[in-house]
What we know:
With 109 residues, this protein is mainly alpha-helical.
Amino acid sequence: MLSARSLPFSLPTPANPASQPHSPPQQQQFTNTSSQQLILSTLIQQSPIPTSVLLAAADVDGNTALHYASAYGQLKAIRALLGAGANPGARNAYSWTPIAYSSTVQAEV
């Protein structure tokens, strides 16, 4: 399981599942998103950790890599993660799915 301390930011944690999440901290901006997607795909394919375990890894709030990609509107990362078998219906500790984060305003920015 990933540690929240190892992540450079955290996802918003709504008080209840019906509330809208707060604005997450600023993410690091990478200018070359195709390089980003290539790196992510390579990491998934060549990881010594089984893909199913890697994609299901979550932080202390139950957020997977797909939750993070969805919350920040990273469409290429979402495609790479879904293509590798990430679960779009995985719920975090607040019952939010990656799909729910994709529908927030933050994901559009």
